[in-house]
Design a protein that fits this description.
There is one protein chain. The chain is mainly α. Helix content is 61%, strand content 0%. The protein has three helices and no strands. Helix 1 crosses helix 2 and helix 2 packs across helix 3. The longest helix has 15 residues. It is globular, with a radius of gyration of 11 Å.
Length: 56
Amino acid sequence: MSPTIGSIKREAKVIKARDGFGHCQALEIAARKAGFNTYAAAKAALQGSRPGQERK
């Protein structure tokens, strides 16, 4: 299954709770686990990948 921003954020919450990392660091770790270099790269690549999910 392809990663989504939502799935990366959910994984980051798990990492944060389990390992005690800060929010931003957990997002970076989750993004790397999903195959991206950074969370920003994941967000850029996945932005608009699901119709109706764009930020206003």
